[in-house]
Design goal:
This protein has 475 residues and is of the alpha+beta class. Helices cover 19% and strands 33% of the residues. The protein contains eleven helices and 28 strands. Strand 11 and strand 12 form a beta hairpin. The radius of gyration is 28 Å and the shape is elongated. The protein starts with a helix and ends with a strand. The N terminus is likely disordered.
Length: 475
């Protein structure tokens, strides 16, 4: 009992001075004061801005979504995080956050906050005026954008710290405008580092349990020294207390090019890629399925100039290990332009190294084609060995019915697939234009039928979304 009373007295003695003591105003880089988060709010909030955007009317997306829009488990992260704006259905006021990094009005935010915006408005703390913002630059892959306002005066700014030294368990505060509730802050800890979600971002995230909600996107994540260590970017809508921020060190690498060029140049290789499974690796004579299979090479592209060929299996690019097609795409986007880099691959069972000099990626030239119809365009020739599909020439009539571009060569096209057949199970689709069968070029439906066999068949097909590899098991 005496021990308990002593403990209570100790708690009381240690608590009362804390309540009574008031620390001086915090400056960036200062040690932690007792009333830490009070001072953090006073320091950071004046440089945090509310961003609203407006867009022209867009029609409601068709059932199943727009062609080319990602349809994967992570896409809802961005959609949930955007705030009250449904950018794919109707024009609206999209709400987000940014923070001032230069006193002339330069602001960092997320690219997805201002994407497709016809106008960008910024409001500062204690100022009812809405300032027109100019887009300075953006990089959608990193989800970072720079905008600028002209306020006619020097503005409060934040200090950019370092995310490299951040430790798991460290206290942080997230600032923003959740659901339009301006000048809000929440506290939590860094719960993980290096959270690689390549579907969302080029850089591994900082993970935090500080409350982040729609509207916080683009706001600063701040350490206990008052320094910005990350940009709040996404949440896992399926969970509580799982938010993601782009490390500020990664953001710093983009700022010079965004300020001077308005964009970050990315590399272009000029190949179509596919992942394969162990069955596909066995069929192609590979020892492992970890790598990226080249399924097409664009004429005149850096890959073509370097001698890359269809069926090359890439295992390393610019000294980075490649385990999937996505790994290679990211490695290419991160590689330097105009400089020869090594590309290690396997060709016909033999290891080979090529030197590739990348050019700049042109996203407009790489836009995807139209979606394909799921209907058939005539019966055509039946595939042998119980494969369960039919193929015919891509005539003008077939091209119209399948919503495909007409080609003078009239190549063989899949016109019918039986339910639950090997072709269906292997992923072959109506409208697939067949280029190769078992690594032999085909030009007619008869070529396709002749080169199919019992056992596993390898088909290289062209689709509006790119070239793909399909493996079908025959009887």
């Amino acid at each position: 009992m005496k021990f308990f009373m002593a403990l209570v007295s100790l708690i009381a003695l240690s608590t009362q001075p804390a309540l009574a003591q008031k620390s001086p105003a915090l400056k960036a880089g200062d040690s932690m004061p007792i009333n830490l988060f009070v001072e953090l709010g006073k320091l950071v909030n004046p440089a945090v801005v509310n961003i609203s955007t407006a867009q022209r009317v867009q029609r409601r997306p068709p059932r199943g979504g727009y062609p080319g829009v990602p349809n994967d488990p992570f896409w809802h992260f961005f959609e949930e995080f955007m705030g009250p704006n449904d950018r794919m259905q109707r024009p609206a006021q999209a709400l987000g956050t940014g923070f001032i990094v230069e006193d002339d009005g330069l602001i960092i935010t997320n690219a997805h906050v201002i994407n497709q915006a016809d106008e960008i408005k910024v409001q500062m703390v204690g100022d009812k005026k809405l300032y027109d913002a100019e887009l300075i630059g953006k990089d959608e892959r990193a989800d970072i954008a720079l905008i600028r306002i002209k306020a006619g005066k020097k503005l409060p700014t934040v200090t950019l710290g370092s995310s490299e030294t951040v430790e798991v368990g460290e206290w942080v505060a997230a600032f923003g405008n959740p659901f339009g509730h301006t000048n809000s802050m929440s506290k939590g800890i860094i719960s993980a580092k290096g959270r690689a979600l390549s579907e969302l971002n080029a850089f591994p995230f900082l993970q935090t349990d500080a409350s982040i909600n729609p509207g916080n996107s683009g706001g600063p994540l701040v350490n206990t020294r008052g320094e910005v260590i990350g940009v709040n970017t996404a949440i896992d809508a399926r969970a509580q207390g799982i938010g993601f921020a782009i490390p500020i060190d990664s953001v710093k690498t983009l700022l010079p090019q965004l300020k001077t060029k308005g964009r970050v140049p990315h590399g272009f290789l000029g190949v179509g890629l596919a992942d394969i499974d162990p069955r596909g690796a066995l069929q192609l004579g590979l020892k492992s399925d970890e790598g990226a299979l080249v399924v097409s090479v664009s004429p005149g592209s850096p890959a073509a100039v370097a001698g890359v060929d269809v069926y090359d299996f890439v295992t390393k690019f610019n000294e980075r290990e490649i385990k999937s097609a996505r790994d290679l795409m990211n490695a290419v986007l991160d590689a330097p332009l105009g400089k020869a880099v090594p590309m290690e691959l396997i060709r016909d069972g033999n290891a080979k190294t090529l030197k590739v000099t990348l050019t700049e990626r042109d996203d407009k030239a790489m836009a995807q084609g139209p979606a394909r119809s799921s209907g058939g365009a005539g019966k055509g020739d039946a595939a042998p060995h119980g494969l369960g599909f039919r193929v015919s020439r891509l005539t003008r009539a077939a091209a119209i019915e399948l919503n495909l571009a007409y080609l003078k060569e009239e190549p063989p096209v899949v016109t019918q697939i039986e339910n639950r057949s090997p072709a269906a199970n292997g992923g072959l689709q109506v409208g697939d234009v067949i280029l190769d069968v078992n690594r032999k070029r085909v030009k007619t439906p008869q070529d396709v039928v002749k080169n199919l066999k019992a056992g596993t068949n390898t088909l290289r097909v062209a689709r509006p979304t790119g070239t793909a590899m399909v493996f079908i098991e025959g009887k």
